Amino acid sequence: MLQALGMSTDSIAVYQAMLDQPGHGVTQIAESTGLTPTQVHQSLDELAQLMLVRASSEYPGKMRAVDPDIGLADIVARQEAELAARQAQLAASRAAVTRIVADRAEHRSTHGERLLGMDAIHNRLERLGRDAHSEIIGVQPGVQSSQDLNAGRDHDLAALLRGVAMRTLYQEHARRHTHIVAYGHTLLGHGGEVRTAPTIPQRMVIVDRTHALLPIDPASTRKGALHVTEPGIVTALLELFEQAWNTAVPLGATRPDDPQTGLTDHERELLRLLGTGLTDEAAGQRLGLTDRTIRRQVASIMERLGASSRFEAGIKAAQRGWL
């Protein structure tokens, strides 16, 4: 357990020996722990860096162990402060990326065109679908309405009948919506491929690996889309899609809980997202789940880990190899 606080096995043994026998010197500690004097000295240096040992006033020339209630609690407090600082850095990085993407979207070039409103988006999708000759890739987070699905139905089926390969990636919770599942099986019945995953990239459509449509504002996709043909951007989007596709589950198939941990895919992804510094709300948005559901899943994970705090749960999850 103490390894999670940055202590080596040798240092833990030396620290415990010093707590049990405050007056022992290096030689006596080495004898009681089975370590060499050199290893004891190295462990004392490590414990000093962690501020778990100090010069003894009662035994001149020797070190004393700091009470665990103080020393270990201080380490945990420092780690929590470092984690909070890292979370703040991640939040600032996300904000910077969002600003850069927004600024880029404001500029139209020969490689990008802004399409404002759903009619403009549907018109462009219809034209791209009609002209497609090899492949159409779609990523559909959230829950598509029946109206939006029906708007592209005829064009999707026409492309499939022409022999165009079609791969569509939905978020896992789409399996709970019958109209999406029915549409997915329609695509499957005409030769398309459909998969789901707990978290997927933002909404996008890529046609023939040369054209990509993605929302100007991922939080409100009906505002408009950016049609890009810049090879560097399209290639990056393709790589992002392939990473998600390779770990997704085909529609109609189910993936059992991990037999080693009992975690579902949602729970494992939730642990990963929270570990990157996301709040419950942000993690819920990525997974398509409500705050209440996220809190319930976190409470369940903490109970299985026997953890009394999220910080302790993170340490125990890492120790058990859940992350």
Keywords summarizing the entry:
alpha+beta, Arc Repressor Mutant, subunit A, 10 strands, single chain, two-stranded antiparallel ribbon, eight-stranded mixed β-sheet, Endonuclease, Chain A, 54% helix, 323 residues
Structure commentary:
- This protein has 323 residues and is an alpha+beta fold.
- The protein has four domains: 64 residues, Arc Repressor Mutant, subunit A (Orthogonal Bundle); 41 residues; 140 residues, Endonuclease, Chain A (2-Layer Sandwich), CATH 3.30.870.10; 55 residues, Arc Repressor Mutant, subunit A (Orthogonal Bundle).
- The longest helix has 38 residues.
- The protein is elongated.
- About 2% of the residues have low confidence.
- It comes from Streptomyces massasporeus.
- It holds the Pfam family TrmB.
- This is LuxR C-terminal-related transcriptional regulator.
